Amino acid sequence: MRAARRSGSANTKTKAEVNLSGAKPWRQKGTGRARAGYKSSPIWRGGGVVFGPKPRDYTKKVSKTTRRLAFQKALSERINAGDVMTVDSFSVKEAKTKSFLSLVKGHTDAKKVLLISDSFDENFYRSARNVRPILLATATDVNTEQLLAFDKIIVTDAALAQLAQRTTAPAKAAAQS
User: Fold this and answer.
1) Burial class (CB in 10 A: 0-12, 13-18, 19+), 82
2) Cα–Cα 20 to 30 A to 17, which of 29, 71, 87, 172?
């Protein structure tokens, strides 16, 4: 996932792409200097780069089963480590960051907290959007990297059921005979 986020925009010019004259700098023989064909040669100052970086894509192909297994392992390890807490639901009376922080502090003292729910209401989202080390994620959108990046994870009961459903393999469409 981190490799896919890399921009891959590093770029250098080769001797063909450098904007220099194609004229021969000096004649081939008789000057006492070495032969030179063009000023864009890589051994010259201002010349092209030989094997420099070019724009490329860093994404890696990972199969669905491997991604599902990684998600399942990450979630189960976090549960076994005691980093996952469950609550009935998330709600604040008014869209205030202070009330949101008091709600989170009531559950954990960790700095980086991941809150997972099946859905968030508008007041809760507004009260949480200004707090950087805390992330709101729905059970359908949370990924393996997020499960591993945060110190504590607080999950609603409905979201935990959805996460459990995501970790099981999908049923085969056709029965084998």
Assistant:
1) exposed
2) 29
